[in-house]
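Reviewers of the previous submission asked for a worked example of the structure-prediction workflow described in the proposal, so we include one complete record here. The input consisted solely of the amino acid sequence. No template or homolog information was supplied to the procedure at any stage.
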Amino acid sequence: MTARTSQNPATPEFSNTMIDNGGGIDPASFFSKKVSAMSQLSNIEKEVSQDAFILEASVINRVAQVTIAFWIMKILATTLGETAGDFISMTLNLGYYVGFAVTFSALAIILFLKVKAQNYSSILFWTAIVATTTAGTEVSDMLDRSFGLGYMWGSLILVAGLIVTLAIWLARHKALGVYPIYKREVEILFWAAVVFSNSLGTAFGDFLTDNAGLSYIQGALVTAAIIGVVAILHYGTRINHVFLFWMAFIFTRPFGATFGDFLTKPLAKGGLDLPREYASLMTFMLLAAVLFYSMRLDRAKQDAA
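From that input alone, the workflow returned the following structure tokens.
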């Protein structure tokens, strides 16, 4: 019986190409193939590593989860944005044009850092929210007072900007979900919508107190009622939740802004006449307290999981 020779291609050390004429293994051919195989394996490992990095980066959420704490911090952030924006343009007497340039320069830097960040940071996210509310104050005031457009035309411009932003978002990504967000391009559209929403909310709040003649408390009650209706629609109906989110996002802006005006405006106008810097510091401390408490809860949930 003739012995069979193994022909398994997975064992190249026994292939004919590595056997010399004397029946032994050719060392040069053996090491050449060994080096080639190791090189191919190294390239595969690099490709796998790169693919894993891309996959990991693509599944990192880039925005805050929408919870009760989110809305509390949103209202405090809008209050801080209102008082800080008025401090820049009025207390420092820089005017709306200079105030706009200052706040949008700061906003551009903060959003650049936020979008470029590899990991989600609650502190950076809420710093960006405050920056958008501050810039929104300047945008609304500039459209109404510096450009003389009034609240109606200024609001129509802002509504158009928001609709165009959401339309581009929907056309490019086929969805408008605000949580979670994994792609940087979607995050950029999210922040553009946030700026328009906060500016629009500011215009509505100013309309209630300046044009409709409501006091700051009455204005806050009107916007609180609208937010309450949105909440009822969210929990009690099947109306699109993305639409309701942006409605709530817009109207929490005037709610926080009218509260900020209540803190800083003169007593004769129904305010408490607090210095804007003191009101800003007080609101900042409240926002920081809620933020760090929320971060502790999130950390505890992660540890428990």
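The CA atoms of residues 239 and 278 lie 41 Å apart. We consider this example representative of the routine output the project will generate in years two and three.
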